[in-house]
Amino acid sequence: MILELLRRIFCKQEVTKMKLIKNYIPEGARCSTHHGFDNGQASIITIHWTGPLPNQTPEQVRNYWISNGEASAHFIIKDEVCLQCWPTDTVAWHAGCRAGNYTSLGIEVIPKNEAGEFSDKSITTLKELIATLPKMPIVRHYDWTSKDCPRYYCDVNKWQELLAKISK
Ligand SMILES: [Zn+2]
């Protein structure tokens, strides 16, 4: 009885676990790249937002990249879902500059509102995903090119807060 009670309390407190779905972008898509990283592997993580469209699904973002886009990233997060679009040893075009693309993994987050705030579940998934990767610095798209991405976290205080939550 007590064990059952403890189990229930524990399970209630447990945060939703990341659902990692691997669905790589097919060869020949407009956003395809076939290059390796400058040093053989990524050494930095770049965080993005997908824009002020909170109702998008990760699949819609992926499909947009395949049919219309020249850009893409390795992961798309929305709440507990993490859709992996590229293997982590493949370069994707997401950082807006060569230095960023050829050194970093791109993680896109679909925001919970038009302001660009990430949901608590998305932040948890981001943390869980980062925990599975080798330890490396985490930067914003903004840090590469001054693009307002991820917009809500271009504010330095909000970024520091987020960084503290997702870092190893
Ligand atoms: Zn970006």
Note down, in words, how this protein is organized.
The protein is α/β, with parallel strands linked by helices and 168 residues long. It has a single domain, classed as 3-Layer(aba) Sandwich (Lysozyme-like), CATH 3.40.80. It is built from six helices and six strands, in the order αββαββαβαβαα. Strand 3 and strand 4 form a beta hairpin. The chain starts with a helix and ends with a helix. Bound molecules: zinc ion. Zinc ion (ZN) is lined by residues 48, 141, 147, 149.
Highest CATH level, the class: Alpha Beta
Q: Please indicate the count of domains.
A: 1
> How would you sum up the major sheet?
6 strands, mixed
- Stated plainly, the CATH topology is called Lysozyme-like
Shape: globular
Structural class: alpha/beta
- For this structure, what is the CATH homologous superfamily? Peptidoglycan recognition protein-like
Helix content: 25-40%
Number of helices: 6
**SSE string:** HEEHEEHEHEHH
Q: What is the distance, rounded to the nearest whole angstrom, between the alpha carbons of the first and last residues?
A: 36 Å
Please compute the radius of gyration using only Cα atoms. 17 Å
Present as ligands are: zinc ion
Q: Name the strands of the widest sheet in spatial order.
A: 1-4-3-5-2-6
Short description:
The chain has 168 residues and is of the alpha/beta class. The protein has helices spanning 2-13, 58-67, 98-101, 120-132, 141-145, 156-166, and strands at 19-22, 44-49, 75-78, 81-84, 104-109, 138-140. Strands 1-4-3-5-2-6 form a six-stranded mixed beta sheet, with helices on both faces.
